[in-house]
Amino acid sequence: MPNMLTLILQISVVLAVSRVVGGIFLKMRQPRVVGEMFAGIMLGPSLLGWIAPHFSAFLFPPLSLGYLNALSQVGVIIFMFLVGLGINPRELKNQSHTAVLTSHLSITFPFVFASFLAIYLYPRLSDNSVPFTSFALFMGAAMSMTAFPVLARILTEKNLLHSRLGTIAIACAAVADVTGWCVLAYIVLLVRATDAQKSTWLMVTGVLAFALVMLLGVRRLVRRFEFMYRKKGRLSEDAIALMVLLALGSALCTESLGIHLLFGSFLMGAIMPKEPQFVRYVLDRFEIIVATVLPLFFAFTGLRTNIGLVKGPEMWMYCALIILVATLGKFGGSTLAAWWTGMPVREAAGVGTLMNTRGLMELMVLNIGLDVRVISPALFSMMVLMALTTTFMTSPLLEVICPTRLLWGHTSSANNQEPVTATLGLELAGD
Amino acid sequence: MKRKSLNFAVGYLILVALPVLVFVGVLRSGRTLVAPVSVGGLWRIQANGENVVVLPCGEPLVVADSNFTILQSGKNFTLNFDRSVMSSTSGTVEGTIIRATILPAAKWAKGTRCDLARVLTLTATVDSRVNAHFLAGVLSVGDCPACALVHFRAVREEQAKASGVN
Fold first, then answer.
1. In chain B, whose CA is at the least distance from the CA of A69?
2. Do B166 and A126 touch (CB under 8 A)?
3. Chain A residues touching residue B12 (CB < 8 angstroms)
4. CA A181 to chain centre
5. Are B11 and A341 inside 8 Å of each other by CB?
6. Which residue of B has its CA nearest to A73?
7. CA separation (Å) from A113 to A144, A196, A381, B26?
8. Closest approach of chain B CAs to the CA of A326, in angstroms?
9. Domain B41-162 -> CATH class
10. B46 Rama class: left (phi>0) / alpha (psi -120 to 50) / beta
11. Taking CB atoms and an 8 Å cutoff, what residues of chain A touch B160?
Protein backbone atom coordinates (compact mmCIF):
# COMPACT_ATOMS: atom_id res chain seq x y z
CA MET A 1 0.00 0.00 0.00
CA PRO A 2 1.27 3.47 -0.75
CA ASN A 3 2.04 5.84 2.08
CA MET A 4 -0.91 8.16 1.47
CA LEU A 5 0.66 11.01 3.38
CA THR A 6 3.74 10.92 1.15
CA LEU A 7 1.70 10.57 -2.02
CA ILE A 8 -0.63 13.47 -1.18
CA LEU A 9 2.34 15.61 -0.18
CA GLN A 10 4.06 14.79 -3.48
CA ILE A 11 0.96 15.63 -5.54
CA SER A 12 0.45 18.88 -3.63
CA VAL A 13 4.04 20.02 -4.06
CA VAL A 14 4.10 19.05 -7.75
CA LEU A 15 0.84 20.87 -8.52
CA ALA A 16 1.86 23.99 -6.56
CA VAL A 17 5.31 24.24 -8.16
CA SER A 18 3.86 23.54 -11.63
CA ARG A 19 1.25 26.28 -11.31
CA VAL A 20 3.79 28.82 -10.04
CA VAL A 21 6.45 28.04 -12.66
CA GLY A 22 3.80 27.74 -15.39
CA GLY A 23 2.51 31.20 -14.41
CA ILE A 24 6.00 32.66 -14.59
CA PHE A 25 6.45 31.18 -18.07
CA LEU A 26 3.13 32.61 -19.19
CA LYS A 27 4.48 36.06 -18.24
CA MET A 28 7.53 35.26 -20.36
CA ARG A 29 5.10 34.65 -23.26
CA GLN A 30 5.75 30.94 -23.21
CA PRO A 31 2.97 28.32 -23.07
CA ARG A 32 2.21 27.22 -19.51
CA VAL A 33 3.08 23.63 -20.39
CA VAL A 34 6.71 24.64 -21.04
CA GLY A 35 6.85 26.03 -17.51
CA GLU A 36 5.35 22.83 -16.15
CA MET A 37 8.03 20.83 -17.94
CA PHE A 38 10.71 23.00 -16.33
CA ALA A 39 8.99 22.63 -12.95
CA GLY A 40 9.26 18.85 -13.27
CA ILE A 41 13.00 19.07 -13.89
CA MET A 42 13.38 21.46 -10.94
CA LEU A 43 11.80 18.91 -8.58
CA GLY A 44 14.23 16.18 -9.60
CA PRO A 45 17.85 15.50 -8.69
CA SER A 46 18.99 18.21 -11.09
CA LEU A 47 17.88 21.02 -8.76
CA LEU A 48 15.92 20.04 -5.63
CA GLY A 49 17.97 16.89 -5.11
CA TRP A 50 21.13 18.90 -5.60
CA ILE A 51 20.39 21.87 -3.31
CA ALA A 52 18.33 20.01 -0.69
CA PRO A 53 19.13 16.30 -0.92
CA HIS A 54 17.57 15.43 2.44
CA PHE A 55 14.29 17.19 1.70
CA SER A 56 14.26 15.62 -1.76
CA ALA A 57 14.81 12.16 -0.26
CA PHE A 58 12.03 12.84 2.27
CA LEU A 59 9.59 14.08 -0.39
CA PHE A 60 10.38 11.51 -3.08
CA PRO A 61 11.58 8.32 -1.36
CA PRO A 62 12.45 5.80 -4.10
CA LEU A 63 9.87 3.28 -2.88
CA SER A 64 7.02 5.78 -3.32
CA LEU A 65 7.81 6.61 -6.92
CA GLY A 66 6.00 3.60 -8.32
CA TYR A 67 2.68 5.08 -7.21
CA LEU A 68 3.50 8.51 -8.57
CA ASN A 69 4.48 6.86 -11.85
CA ALA A 70 1.25 4.84 -12.00
CA LEU A 71 -0.85 7.95 -11.44
CA SER A 72 1.05 9.92 -14.04
CA GLN A 73 0.79 7.08 -16.57
CA VAL A 74 -3.00 7.07 -16.28
CA GLY A 75 -2.96 10.79 -17.05
CA VAL A 76 -0.64 10.27 -20.00
CA ILE A 77 -2.88 7.50 -21.36
CA ILE A 78 -5.83 9.90 -21.33
CA PHE A 79 -3.66 12.63 -22.83
CA MET A 80 -2.53 10.41 -25.71
CA PHE A 81 -6.16 9.44 -26.30
CA LEU A 82 -6.94 13.14 -26.70
CA VAL A 83 -3.93 13.69 -28.98
CA GLY A 84 -5.22 10.88 -31.21
CA LEU A 85 -8.68 12.42 -31.05
CA GLY A 86 -7.28 15.74 -32.25
CA ILE A 87 -5.72 14.24 -35.36
CA ASN A 88 -8.10 14.45 -38.29
CA PRO A 89 -7.07 12.35 -41.31
CA ARG A 90 -9.33 14.45 -43.57
CA GLU A 91 -7.26 17.55 -42.84
CA LEU A 92 -4.12 15.65 -43.79
CA LYS A 93 -5.58 14.32 -47.05
CA ASN A 94 -6.34 17.78 -48.42
CA GLN A 95 -2.88 19.21 -47.94
CA SER A 96 -0.85 20.74 -50.73
CA HIS A 97 2.50 19.66 -52.13
CA THR A 98 4.16 21.89 -49.54
CA ALA A 99 2.60 20.00 -46.65
CA VAL A 100 3.33 16.58 -48.14
CA LEU A 101 6.97 17.34 -48.87
CA THR A 102 7.52 19.24 -45.63
CA SER A 103 5.98 16.55 -43.47
CA HIS A 104 7.99 13.78 -45.11
CA LEU A 105 11.22 15.73 -45.12
CA SER A 106 10.71 16.74 -41.50
CA ILE A 107 10.86 13.02 -40.77
CA THR A 108 13.59 11.80 -43.13
CA PHE A 109 16.07 14.60 -42.38
CA PRO A 110 16.03 14.09 -38.60
CA PHE A 111 16.38 10.33 -39.16
CA VAL A 112 19.44 10.77 -41.40
CA PHE A 113 21.05 13.36 -39.13
CA ALA A 114 20.26 11.25 -36.07
CA SER A 115 21.77 8.15 -37.66
CA PHE A 116 25.07 9.93 -38.25
CA LEU A 117 24.96 11.22 -34.69
CA ALA A 118 24.19 7.68 -33.52
CA ILE A 119 27.42 6.45 -35.16
CA TYR A 120 29.30 8.95 -33.00
CA LEU A 121 27.33 8.49 -29.78
CA TYR A 122 26.75 4.73 -29.78
CA PRO A 123 30.28 3.76 -28.65
CA ARG A 124 30.31 6.64 -26.16
CA LEU A 125 26.88 6.67 -24.51
CA SER A 126 25.41 3.23 -25.13
CA ASP A 127 26.42 -0.32 -24.28
CA ASN A 128 26.56 -3.64 -26.06
CA SER A 129 23.16 -4.79 -24.78
CA VAL A 130 21.55 -2.30 -27.19
CA PRO A 131 21.81 -3.17 -30.91
CA PHE A 132 22.98 -0.25 -33.04
CA THR A 133 19.87 -0.46 -35.25
CA SER A 134 17.54 0.03 -32.29
CA PHE A 135 19.70 2.86 -30.98
CA ALA A 136 19.81 4.70 -34.31
CA LEU A 137 16.11 4.16 -35.01
CA PHE A 138 15.22 5.46 -31.58
CA MET A 139 17.40 8.55 -32.00
CA GLY A 140 15.70 9.17 -35.34
CA ALA A 141 12.19 8.75 -33.93
CA ALA A 142 13.00 10.99 -30.96
CA MET A 143 14.43 13.71 -33.16
CA SER A 144 11.58 13.62 -35.67
CA MET A 145 8.87 14.31 -33.06
CA THR A 146 6.92 17.55 -32.98
CA ALA A 147 4.84 18.61 -30.01
CA PHE A 148 1.49 18.74 -31.72
CA PRO A 149 -0.44 20.29 -28.75
CA VAL A 150 2.24 22.87 -27.86
CA LEU A 151 2.49 23.86 -31.51
CA ALA A 152 -1.28 24.34 -31.74
CA ARG A 153 -1.11 26.46 -28.58
CA ILE A 154 1.62 28.71 -29.97
CA LEU A 155 -0.26 29.16 -33.25
CA THR A 156 -3.48 30.00 -31.41
CA GLU A 157 -1.70 32.56 -29.22
CA LYS A 158 -0.19 34.22 -32.26
CA ASN A 159 -3.43 34.04 -34.18
CA LEU A 160 -1.69 32.05 -36.92
CA LEU A 161 -3.83 28.96 -36.85
CA HIS A 162 -5.61 29.74 -40.11
CA SER A 163 -2.56 31.10 -41.88
CA ARG A 164 -0.78 29.04 -44.52
CA LEU A 165 2.06 28.67 -42.03
CA GLY A 166 -0.31 27.40 -39.35
CA THR A 167 -2.24 24.87 -41.43
CA ILE A 168 0.93 23.45 -42.95
CA ALA A 169 2.70 23.23 -39.60
CA ILE A 170 -0.28 21.50 -37.96
CA ALA A 171 -0.65 18.98 -40.80
CA CYS A 172 3.09 18.25 -40.84
CA ALA A 173 3.23 17.85 -37.06
CA ALA A 174 0.41 15.32 -37.21
CA VAL A 175 2.14 13.29 -39.93
CA ALA A 176 5.48 13.48 -38.11
CA ASP A 177 3.96 12.32 -34.85
CA VAL A 178 2.01 9.45 -36.36
CA THR A 179 5.14 8.28 -38.22
CA GLY A 180 7.33 8.76 -35.16
CA TRP A 181 4.98 6.71 -32.97
CA CYS A 182 4.83 3.93 -35.58
CA VAL A 183 8.64 3.74 -35.73
CA LEU A 184 8.79 3.82 -31.96
CA ALA A 185 6.24 1.00 -31.72
CA TYR A 186 8.46 -1.06 -34.01
CA ILE A 187 11.55 -0.36 -31.88
CA VAL A 188 9.77 -1.26 -28.64
CA LEU A 189 8.51 -4.41 -30.28
CA LEU A 190 12.00 -5.34 -31.46
CA VAL A 191 13.55 -4.74 -28.04
CA ARG A 192 10.82 -6.53 -26.11
CA ALA A 193 10.81 -9.45 -28.54
CA THR A 194 14.54 -9.87 -27.92
CA ASP A 195 14.15 -9.53 -24.15
CA ALA A 196 11.22 -11.93 -23.95
CA GLN A 197 12.72 -14.22 -26.59
CA LYS A 198 9.48 -14.08 -28.55
CA SER A 199 9.15 -14.16 -32.29
CA THR A 200 9.18 -10.64 -33.69
CA TRP A 201 6.92 -11.71 -36.53
CA LEU A 202 4.38 -13.10 -34.11
CA MET A 203 4.32 -9.83 -32.24
CA VAL A 204 4.12 -7.79 -35.46
CA THR A 205 1.22 -9.95 -36.64
CA GLY A 206 -0.55 -9.45 -33.32
CA VAL A 207 -0.14 -5.69 -33.45
CA LEU A 208 -1.28 -5.50 -37.09
CA ALA A 209 -4.33 -7.66 -36.34
CA PHE A 210 -5.20 -5.41 -33.40
CA ALA A 211 -4.82 -2.28 -35.57
CA LEU A 212 -7.08 -3.80 -38.23
CA VAL A 213 -9.75 -4.72 -35.70
CA MET A 214 -9.62 -1.17 -34.35
CA LEU A 215 -9.74 0.51 -37.76
CA LEU A 216 -12.35 -1.72 -39.35
CA GLY A 217 -14.46 -2.85 -36.43
CA VAL A 218 -14.21 -0.69 -33.31
CA ARG A 219 -14.15 2.50 -35.38
CA ARG A 220 -17.69 1.82 -36.56
CA LEU A 221 -18.89 1.12 -33.04
CA VAL A 222 -17.44 4.30 -31.53
CA ARG A 223 -19.39 6.37 -34.06
CA ARG A 224 -22.31 5.86 -31.71
CA PHE A 225 -20.69 8.39 -29.35
CA GLU A 226 -21.14 11.07 -31.99
CA PHE A 227 -24.77 10.06 -32.63
CA MET A 228 -25.44 10.28 -28.90
CA TYR A 229 -23.82 13.68 -28.73
CA ARG A 230 -25.77 14.97 -31.73
CA LYS A 231 -29.04 13.71 -30.29
CA LYS A 232 -28.72 15.23 -26.82
CA GLY A 233 -26.03 17.86 -27.27
CA ARG A 234 -24.00 16.18 -24.56
CA LEU A 235 -22.73 12.77 -23.48
CA SER A 236 -23.97 10.96 -20.41
CA GLU A 237 -21.64 10.09 -17.53
CA ASP A 238 -21.89 6.46 -18.60
CA ALA A 239 -20.75 7.32 -22.13
CA ILE A 240 -17.76 9.27 -20.82
CA ALA A 241 -16.87 6.41 -18.49
CA LEU A 242 -17.14 3.99 -21.41
CA MET A 243 -14.79 6.20 -23.43
CA VAL A 244 -12.21 6.07 -20.64
CA LEU A 245 -12.68 2.31 -20.41
CA LEU A 246 -12.09 1.93 -24.14
CA ALA A 247 -8.93 4.03 -23.99
CA LEU A 248 -7.64 2.02 -21.03
CA GLY A 249 -8.64 -1.28 -22.64
CA SER A 250 -6.90 -0.40 -25.87
CA ALA A 251 -3.81 0.65 -23.91
CA LEU A 252 -3.87 -2.66 -22.10
CA CYS A 253 -4.10 -4.54 -25.41
CA THR A 254 -1.05 -2.85 -26.95
CA GLU A 255 0.91 -3.36 -23.73
CA SER A 256 0.02 -7.07 -23.75
CA LEU A 257 0.93 -7.31 -27.43
CA GLY A 258 4.42 -6.10 -26.64
CA ILE A 259 4.29 -2.43 -27.54
CA HIS A 260 3.69 0.41 -25.09
CA LEU A 261 0.43 1.39 -23.38
CA LEU A 262 0.45 4.78 -25.06
CA PHE A 263 0.11 3.38 -28.58
CA GLY A 264 -3.23 1.82 -27.71
CA SER A 265 -4.72 4.95 -26.23
CA PHE A 266 -3.42 7.03 -29.16
CA LEU A 267 -5.01 4.62 -31.65
CA MET A 268 -8.32 4.64 -29.78
CA GLY A 269 -8.33 8.45 -29.95
CA ALA A 270 -7.40 8.39 -33.63
CA ILE A 271 -10.39 6.21 -34.57
CA MET A 272 -12.93 8.30 -32.64
CA PRO A 273 -15.38 10.46 -34.65
CA LYS A 274 -13.87 13.73 -35.83
CA GLU A 275 -16.85 16.07 -35.88
CA PRO A 276 -15.29 19.30 -34.50
CA GLN A 277 -18.02 20.11 -31.94
CA PHE A 278 -17.98 16.57 -30.62
CA VAL A 279 -14.19 16.61 -30.34
CA ARG A 280 -14.26 19.95 -28.55
CA TYR A 281 -16.88 18.66 -26.12
CA VAL A 282 -14.81 15.58 -25.27
CA LEU A 283 -11.67 17.67 -24.82
CA ASP A 284 -13.55 19.97 -22.45
CA ARG A 285 -14.74 17.04 -20.37
CA PHE A 286 -11.23 15.63 -19.98
CA GLU A 287 -9.42 18.93 -19.53
CA ILE A 288 -9.40 18.92 -15.75
CA ILE A 289 -8.05 15.36 -15.51
CA VAL A 290 -5.20 16.04 -17.88
CA ALA A 291 -4.39 19.45 -16.41
CA THR A 292 -4.12 17.84 -12.97
CA VAL A 293 -2.23 14.70 -13.86
CA LEU A 294 0.19 15.89 -16.56
CA PRO A 295 2.35 17.83 -14.05
CA LEU A 296 2.83 14.51 -12.23
CA PHE A 297 4.24 13.06 -15.43
CA PHE A 298 6.59 16.02 -15.78
CA ALA A 299 7.65 15.58 -12.16
CA PHE A 300 8.29 11.88 -12.69
CA THR A 301 10.31 12.68 -15.80
CA GLY A 302 12.19 15.29 -13.79
CA LEU A 303 12.97 12.73 -11.11
CA ARG A 304 14.56 10.52 -13.76
CA THR A 305 16.49 13.41 -15.29
CA ASN A 306 19.80 14.00 -13.62
CA ILE A 307 21.68 16.81 -15.24
CA GLY A 308 24.51 15.89 -12.86
CA LEU A 309 25.17 12.90 -15.13
CA VAL A 310 26.10 15.33 -17.89
CA LYS A 311 29.42 16.23 -16.35
CA GLY A 312 32.66 17.38 -17.85
CA PRO A 313 33.27 19.27 -21.07
CA GLU A 314 33.02 16.10 -23.14
CA MET A 315 29.50 15.26 -21.97
CA TRP A 316 28.33 18.86 -22.42
CA MET A 317 29.79 18.76 -25.91
CA TYR A 318 27.66 15.67 -26.65
CA CYS A 319 24.64 17.49 -25.28
CA ALA A 320 25.30 20.57 -27.44
CA LEU A 321 25.79 18.30 -30.43
CA ILE A 322 22.45 16.59 -29.79
CA ILE A 323 20.65 19.95 -29.63
CA LEU A 324 22.43 21.15 -32.77
CA VAL A 325 21.72 18.00 -34.78
CA ALA A 326 18.09 17.85 -33.62
CA THR A 327 17.56 21.46 -34.64
CA LEU A 328 19.40 21.12 -37.96
CA GLY A 329 17.45 18.02 -38.88
CA LYS A 330 13.99 19.26 -38.00
CA PHE A 331 14.32 22.98 -38.63
CA GLY A 332 16.59 22.52 -41.66
CA GLY A 333 14.54 19.77 -43.26
CA SER A 334 11.19 21.51 -42.83
CA THR A 335 12.52 24.88 -43.97
CA LEU A 336 14.16 23.38 -47.05
CA ALA A 337 11.01 21.52 -48.09
CA ALA A 338 8.71 24.51 -47.59
CA TRP A 339 11.09 26.75 -49.53
CA TRP A 340 11.48 24.16 -52.31
CA THR A 341 7.74 24.12 -52.90
CA GLY A 342 7.61 27.88 -53.32
CA MET A 343 7.16 29.40 -49.87
CA PRO A 344 9.05 32.63 -49.15
CA VAL A 345 12.25 31.98 -47.18
CA ARG A 346 11.11 33.65 -43.96
CA GLU A 347 7.78 31.87 -43.94
CA ALA A 348 9.51 28.59 -44.74
CA ALA A 349 11.84 29.22 -41.79
CA GLY A 350 8.73 29.85 -39.71
CA VAL A 351 7.44 26.38 -40.59
CA GLY A 352 10.86 24.98 -39.66
CA THR A 353 10.83 26.78 -36.32
CA LEU A 354 7.38 25.47 -35.45
CA MET A 355 8.26 21.93 -36.45
CA ASN A 356 11.27 22.07 -34.15
CA THR A 357 8.98 22.26 -31.08
CA ARG A 358 9.25 18.96 -29.27
CA GLY A 359 7.64 19.56 -25.91
CA LEU A 360 5.93 16.88 -23.93
CA MET A 361 5.56 14.42 -26.83
CA GLU A 362 9.33 14.16 -26.81
CA LEU A 363 9.36 13.56 -23.06
CA MET A 364 6.92 10.68 -23.53
CA VAL A 365 9.09 9.16 -26.24
CA LEU A 366 12.22 9.55 -24.10
CA ASN A 367 10.56 7.91 -21.11
CA ILE A 368 9.67 4.93 -23.28
CA GLY A 369 13.26 4.79 -24.53
CA LEU A 370 14.57 4.76 -20.97
CA ASP A 371 11.99 2.16 -19.92
CA VAL A 372 13.04 -0.25 -22.66
CA ARG A 373 16.71 0.69 -22.03
CA VAL A 374 17.45 1.80 -25.59
CA ILE A 375 19.01 4.96 -24.14
CA SER A 376 21.20 5.36 -21.10
CA PRO A 377 20.38 7.67 -18.17
CA ALA A 378 22.94 10.28 -19.27
CA LEU A 379 21.66 10.29 -22.83
CA PHE A 380 18.10 10.54 -21.49
CA SER A 381 19.09 13.66 -19.53
CA MET A 382 20.76 15.18 -22.60
CA MET A 383 17.71 14.47 -24.74
CA VAL A 384 15.43 16.03 -22.11
CA LEU A 385 17.60 19.15 -22.22
CA MET A 386 17.27 19.09 -26.02
CA ALA A 387 13.46 18.84 -25.74
CA LEU A 388 13.34 21.74 -23.28
CA THR A 389 15.67 23.90 -25.36
CA THR A 390 13.90 23.34 -28.68
CA THR A 391 10.49 23.94 -27.09
CA PHE A 392 11.58 27.03 -25.19
CA MET A 393 13.20 28.66 -28.22
CA THR A 394 10.19 28.25 -30.54
CA SER A 395 8.12 31.31 -29.55
CA PRO A 396 10.95 33.89 -29.45
CA LEU A 397 12.59 32.47 -32.56
CA LEU A 398 9.33 32.55 -34.47
CA GLU A 399 8.85 36.19 -33.53
CA VAL A 400 12.35 37.03 -34.81
CA ILE A 401 12.34 34.93 -37.98
CA CYS A 402 8.77 35.31 -38.99
CA PRO A 403 6.91 38.14 -37.20
CA THR A 404 3.13 37.78 -37.19
CA ARG A 405 2.62 40.99 -39.18
CA LEU A 406 4.54 39.46 -42.10
CA LEU A 407 2.10 36.57 -42.25
CA TRP A 408 -1.13 38.53 -42.31
CA GLY A 409 -0.99 38.63 -46.08
CA HIS A 410 -0.99 34.86 -46.24
CA THR A 411 -3.92 34.28 -43.92
CA SER A 412 -6.22 31.78 -45.50
CA SER A 413 -9.88 32.61 -45.67
CA ALA A 414 -10.88 29.21 -46.97
CA ASN A 415 -10.67 27.48 -43.64
CA ASN A 416 -13.08 29.31 -41.39
CA GLN A 417 -13.69 26.45 -39.06
CA GLU A 418 -11.32 26.24 -36.16
CA PRO A 419 -9.46 22.95 -36.40
CA VAL A 420 -9.87 20.69 -33.43
CA THR A 421 -6.13 20.71 -32.97
CA ALA A 422 -6.48 24.32 -31.87
CA THR A 423 -8.78 23.26 -29.10
CA LEU A 424 -6.34 20.54 -28.12
CA GLY A 425 -3.63 23.15 -27.90
CA LEU A 426 -5.81 25.52 -25.91
CA GLU A 427 -7.11 23.02 -23.45
CA LEU A 428 -4.12 20.87 -22.86
CA ALA A 429 -1.09 22.96 -23.44
CA GLY A 430 -1.82 25.94 -21.31
CA ASP A 431 -4.26 28.56 -20.26
CA MET B 1 0.86 23.46 -62.84
CA LYS B 2 2.89 20.85 -64.69
CA ARG B 3 6.09 22.57 -63.64
CA LYS B 4 4.95 22.65 -60.02
CA SER B 5 4.25 18.93 -60.06
CA LEU B 6 7.60 18.19 -61.67
CA ASN B 7 9.32 20.37 -59.09
CA PHE B 8 7.53 18.43 -56.37
CA ALA B 9 8.46 15.05 -57.87
CA VAL B 10 12.13 16.00 -58.23
CA GLY B 11 12.13 17.47 -54.73
CA TYR B 12 10.57 14.34 -53.31
CA LEU B 13 13.11 12.12 -55.01
CA ILE B 14 16.12 14.16 -53.94
CA LEU B 15 15.01 15.30 -50.52
CA VAL B 16 13.02 12.31 -49.27
CA ALA B 17 13.91 9.14 -51.18
CA LEU B 18 17.65 9.78 -51.24
CA PRO B 19 17.91 10.46 -47.48
CA VAL B 20 15.98 7.23 -46.83
CA LEU B 21 18.63 5.32 -48.79
CA VAL B 22 21.39 7.14 -46.90
CA PHE B 23 19.69 6.23 -43.62
CA VAL B 24 19.53 2.55 -44.58
CA GLY B 25 23.21 2.69 -45.53
CA VAL B 26 24.16 4.24 -42.20
CA LEU B 27 22.18 1.59 -40.33
CA ARG B 28 24.04 -1.15 -42.17
CA SER B 29 27.47 0.37 -41.66
CA GLY B 30 26.76 1.06 -37.99
CA ARG B 31 26.25 -2.60 -37.22
CA THR B 32 30.01 -3.10 -37.00
CA LEU B 33 30.35 -0.54 -34.21
CA VAL B 34 31.30 -1.82 -30.81
CA ALA B 35 29.83 -0.28 -27.66
CA PRO B 36 31.20 -0.71 -24.13
CA VAL B 37 30.31 -3.93 -22.38
CA SER B 38 26.99 -3.74 -20.52
CA VAL B 39 27.32 -3.65 -16.73
CA GLY B 40 24.14 -1.81 -15.77
CA GLY B 41 21.80 -3.44 -13.32
CA LEU B 42 21.47 -4.83 -9.83
CA TRP B 43 24.48 -6.84 -8.67
CA ARG B 44 24.78 -9.04 -5.64
CA ILE B 45 28.29 -9.40 -4.25
CA GLN B 46 29.35 -12.88 -3.25
CA ALA B 47 32.25 -12.35 -0.90
CA ASN B 48 33.23 -13.67 2.46
CA GLY B 49 31.59 -11.23 4.89
CA GLU B 50 34.34 -11.73 7.45
CA ASN B 51 36.97 -10.63 4.95
CA VAL B 52 34.96 -7.58 3.99
CA VAL B 53 34.44 -6.52 7.62
CA VAL B 54 38.20 -6.60 8.17
CA LEU B 55 38.61 -3.87 5.57
CA PRO B 56 38.54 -0.34 6.94
CA CYS B 57 35.12 1.01 5.95
CA GLY B 58 34.13 -2.43 4.76
CA GLU B 59 31.52 -2.92 7.49
CA PRO B 60 28.76 -0.92 5.79
CA LEU B 61 29.02 -3.18 2.77
CA VAL B 62 27.94 -6.15 4.88
CA VAL B 63 25.08 -4.04 6.27
CA ALA B 64 23.95 -3.35 2.71
CA ASP B 65 23.60 -7.07 2.12
CA SER B 66 26.28 -6.45 -0.49
CA ASN B 67 23.95 -5.27 -3.23
CA PHE B 68 24.72 -2.46 -5.56
CA THR B 69 23.10 -0.97 -8.61
CA ILE B 70 25.00 0.31 -11.62
CA LEU B 71 23.46 2.91 -13.89
CA GLN B 72 25.56 2.88 -17.02
CA SER B 73 25.95 5.52 -19.69
CA GLY B 74 28.54 4.30 -22.16
CA LYS B 75 31.95 4.06 -20.52
CA ASN B 76 30.79 5.87 -17.39
CA PHE B 77 28.55 4.62 -14.66
CA THR B 78 27.25 5.53 -11.24
CA LEU B 79 27.24 2.95 -8.53
CA ASN B 80 24.73 3.01 -5.67
CA PHE B 81 24.82 0.68 -2.70
CA ASP B 82 21.61 -0.48 -1.08
CA ARG B 83 20.47 1.51 1.94
CA SER B 84 22.89 4.30 0.94
CA VAL B 85 25.71 2.87 3.02
CA MET B 86 28.22 4.34 0.63
CA SER B 87 28.15 7.64 -1.16
CA SER B 88 26.89 7.41 -4.69
CA THR B 89 30.01 6.97 -6.69
CA SER B 90 31.11 6.93 -10.29
CA GLY B 91 33.33 4.63 -12.26
CA THR B 92 34.45 3.71 -15.73
CA VAL B 93 34.38 0.71 -18.02
CA GLU B 94 37.54 0.01 -20.02
CA GLY B 95 37.20 -3.04 -22.20
CA THR B 96 35.99 -5.71 -19.82
CA ILE B 97 37.41 -4.07 -16.70
CA ILE B 98 35.36 -1.82 -14.47
CA ARG B 99 36.84 0.53 -11.91
CA ALA B 100 35.13 2.57 -9.24
CA THR B 101 36.20 4.42 -6.13
CA ILE B 102 33.84 4.17 -3.22
CA LEU B 103 33.51 6.59 -0.32
CA PRO B 104 31.65 5.64 2.86
CA ALA B 105 28.52 7.61 3.67
CA ALA B 106 28.91 9.84 6.72
CA LYS B 107 25.93 8.33 8.59
CA TRP B 108 27.45 4.85 8.41
CA ALA B 109 30.97 5.91 9.24
CA LYS B 110 29.98 7.25 12.68
CA GLY B 111 31.07 5.04 15.51
CA THR B 112 33.03 2.69 13.32
CA ARG B 113 36.74 2.61 12.65
CA CYS B 114 36.06 4.09 9.29
CA ASP B 115 37.86 7.24 8.34
CA LEU B 116 35.76 9.24 5.89
CA ALA B 117 38.86 10.00 3.86
CA ARG B 118 39.34 6.29 3.20
CA VAL B 119 38.68 5.32 -0.34
CA LEU B 120 37.74 1.82 -1.31
CA THR B 121 38.61 0.82 -4.82
CA LEU B 122 36.56 -1.68 -6.72
CA THR B 123 38.24 -3.27 -9.70
CA ALA B 124 36.56 -6.10 -11.52
CA THR B 125 36.51 -7.98 -14.75
CA VAL B 126 33.21 -8.68 -16.37
CA ASP B 127 32.71 -11.56 -18.76
CA SER B 128 32.54 -10.09 -22.21
CA ARG B 129 29.22 -11.53 -23.35
CA VAL B 130 26.28 -9.28 -24.03
CA ASN B 131 24.35 -8.93 -20.77
CA ALA B 132 27.13 -10.55 -18.79
CA HIS B 133 25.94 -12.17 -15.60
CA PHE B 134 29.13 -12.33 -13.57
CA LEU B 135 31.98 -10.13 -12.60
CA ALA B 136 35.00 -11.01 -10.54
CA GLY B 137 37.38 -8.62 -8.88
CA VAL B 138 38.96 -7.17 -5.79
CA LEU B 139 38.09 -4.58 -3.21
CA SER B 140 41.11 -2.69 -1.94
CA VAL B 141 41.77 0.27 0.31
CA GLY B 142 43.76 3.23 -0.94
CA ASP B 143 46.88 4.30 1.00
CA CYS B 144 46.84 1.14 3.05
CA PRO B 145 49.49 -1.29 1.87
CA ALA B 146 48.91 -3.42 4.95
CA CYS B 147 45.23 -3.92 4.21
CA ALA B 148 44.43 -7.20 2.53
CA LEU B 149 42.72 -7.35 -0.82
CA VAL B 150 39.27 -8.87 -0.71
CA HIS B 151 38.38 -10.97 -3.69
CA PHE B 152 34.75 -11.10 -4.66
CA ARG B 153 32.36 -12.28 -7.31
CA ALA B 154 29.14 -10.54 -8.18
CA VAL B 155 26.08 -11.90 -9.91
CA ARG B 156 23.80 -9.69 -11.94
CA GLU B 157 20.29 -10.05 -10.60
CA GLU B 158 18.63 -7.94 -13.27
CA GLN B 159 19.30 -5.26 -15.83
CA ALA B 160 19.08 -1.68 -14.60
CA LYS B 161 15.51 -0.83 -13.83
CA ALA B 162 14.86 2.42 -15.54
CA SER B 163 11.68 3.18 -13.67
CA GLY B 164 13.33 4.65 -10.64
CA VAL B 165 15.34 7.78 -10.22
CA ASN B 166 18.92 8.00 -11.33
1. B163
2. no
3. 100-101, 104
4. 10
5. yes
6. B163
7. 10, 31, 20, 10
8. 15
9. mainly beta
10. beta
11. 373
Kindly provide the ipTM of the predicted complex, given to two decimals: 0.83
Is 90 exceeded by the pLDDT of residue B60? no
Answer for the pair B138, B123: CB distance below 8 angstroms, yes or no.
yes
- Model confidence over B66-107: pLDDT tens digits? 678 888 999 999 888 776 666 678 889 998 899 988 877 666
Tell me the chain A residues in contact with residue B83 when contact means C-beta distances shorter than 8 Å: none
> What's this model's pTM, rounded to 2 decimal places?
0.83
**Using a CB cutoff of 8 Å and minimum separation of 24, what contacts does A7-16 make?**
A7/A64, A7/A67, A7/A68, A9/A59, A10/A59, A10/A60, A10/A64, A10/A68, A10/A299, A11/A68, A11/A71, A11/A296, A13/A43, A13/A59, A14/A39, A14/A40, A14/A43, A14/A295, A14/A296, A14/A298, A14/A299, A15/A292, A15/A295
Contacts of A124 in chain B (CB under 8 A): 74-75
- In our burial notation (b when 16+ CB lie closer than 10 A, e otherwise), range A69-102 reads bebbbbbbbbbbbbbbbbbbeebbeebbbbbbbb
Per-residue model confidence (pLDDT) at position A353: 93
Contact A47/B at CB under 8 A: no
Q: Is the pLDDT of residue A405 over 90?
A: no
B5-42 burial: b if 16+ Cβ within 10 Å, else e: eeebeebbeebbeebeeebeebbeebeebebbbbbbbb
